Amino acid sequence: MLRNLSIEEFKAQTKASSIQIVKSPKTSKLFASAAGKNYRVQGSIDTAKPIDFMYEDDEAVENSGVENGCFVNSNTDNVVHSM
To answer: How many domains does the chain have?
Structure first.
């Protein structure tokens, strides 16, 4: 199941004091640096909009876990219910 973490939840889980979104000078692709590790970033991310961290939390799925997640813009347009 895909899981979204708020930036605060991501920082707490990874013990990151800050997150930097960086553009690679070689590829021009974006990545995030936090707590000494690099993470993927949605290619079309808009930093003026809310950002979440999305990852697969089902251990039965290949490449699951926070280390394989991605920073994405929060999308509440299709949410039909929250609890």
So the answer is: 1
Q: Please report whether residue 79 resides in a domain.
A: no
- Listed ranges 1-5, 18-22, 66-70; the one with the highest mean pLDDT: 18-22
Helix (H) or strand (E) holding 10: helix 7-14
Sign of dihedral through CA atoms 64, 70, 71, 74?
negative
Structural domain range at position 68: 2-73
Query: Hey, what amino acid is at 78?
Result: N
Entry pTM: 0.81
pLDDT tens for 31-51 read: 999 999 999 999 989 999 899
Identity of the amino acid at 69: G
Structure tokens that stand for 41 in this block: 């970033």
